[in-house]
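Input record (one chain):
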Amino acid sequence: MPDKCHCGAMVDAQGLHGFVCKKAPGRPARHRALNDLVARSMVSGGIPCTKEPLGLSRSDGKRPDGLSLVPWKAGKPLTWDVTVICPLADSCVAAAARESGSVAEEAATRKTAKYSNIQARHIFQSVAVESLGPINASGRVLSKLGRKLADQSGDDREISFLFRRLSVLIQRYNAILLHDCFVKEEEE
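The corresponding structure, as predicted from the sequence alone:
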């Protein structure tokens, strides 16, 4: 039986609308949790960082999600921005049908273009994750971060652990988004 979401859209029995709803209450929490995971991993890997750094604004006033406080490569600090994209969105279905991970790749490309104005002074990496699947090529920065974690701890499994933490975080918030798209009727 169809139900209504917080945004007013109809939600079918499968509840797929919760993954693409722009007003889903779990979306900002998922973004913060994912950015926290990246930042905590940086610090655990011996790379001091700050979240939402001031002074790196785009022309629209938005800023990246994080900045390493020490050089990452070639004397430049790393800046990153996290994005989660759903392959079920109407604008993504065709790309998702062509190739696994292509939706995350496209999201990463769009995000990189948005931050092109800081790339002369910083190394920018988008951390793009599909809500129902692959992590994009920014997985390379996560792999490098996992290697730094492995160097710190002496455990070569740190790369795998980092990707597993990321996967569990996405699955957890998928459940939250699915749950939150169904509005409970108030009892009279």
